[in-house]
Request: fold
Amino acid sequence: MHSACYVSAVPRVLAVDPRAPDPAILAEAAEILRAGGLVAFPTETVYGLGARALDVRAIARVYAAKGRPAHHPLIAHVDGEAGARRIAATWSDRASRLATAFWPGPLTLVVPRAAHVPAEVAGGGDSIAVRAPANAIARALIAALGDAIAAPSANRYQEVSPTIAAHVVKSLGSIPFGVDLVLDGGACDRGIESTVVDVRADVAIVLRPGPIGIDALRAIDPSVVVGASVASDEARASPGMDVRHYAPRARLIVAGTWAEAQESACGLAASGARVGLVLHSERVPDLTRELAKNGNVLVRNLPRDAAGYARGFYAALHDMDDEGVDAIIVEDVPHDDAWWAVADRLRRSTT
Reply:
């Protein structure tokens, strides 16, 4: 009688010091990628679910693990402009200017796809989305592999992106063959997905807001304009273009002010619902003490600056989902360039 071969659905998690990534761990991760496996790793934005970008079978595993529609492209992570040029059919002066200004960093550029790059990594389209991450672990992994790594966020499709390794395990750990190894490099510095800019046309088009704002982009390329979301099943040039995306399990409601947020939370709690409340106002300490008396309200106080808020926002949503809240009330954020990406994620989470 032959014994059955069993592979645990729970991935291995290895801690990696982002200040000095262990070459042995990175070599092991790179070998998994070469063999067609999937490795989750931190970037400065969110954790990515990585596969070798030129491996069609591994790319198919990424789509299956995430439950991601096949027409949604992945982002190829490269070591810099030289790596990007190897998978691009052409590389414009505009692409070079933006890459020089913002790489390594949270900027993704959409360029024409080289013929040898599988269409599957681009969602069937003729473009390729590329970026050079700033995170030391991500950069060391790319170097160890010696090739581009295709990596969407390491979570199920349309769910809240992971900003720590535990979020990855929670989302993908119960899926057989969902991820082979998770590199735990701690919390992501930015906490929100990269800015995506399409540089194939006569003007540069922002397809997804991110940590790099429109003013910073226009300082390098004044032609930059903002594109629109895509709601159809057509192929698109960038991830994160769905009208609804980045959503927690609980219903998310945006309130105009802290007072309206408090009133909504208390009203729902009075009806017996368990409620999460995300605030960023000066009144937060007072509100926290008052609402702490109500066991049905869970309060998260996020920083009042846009970068600090973005860094903690997804983690707050994860915590509240883990607590089993029925609804999450979020105090609205300013609608200026600094808060552009956060406002975009709030809008998509509530659609």
Notes: The chain is about 30% helix and 20% strand.
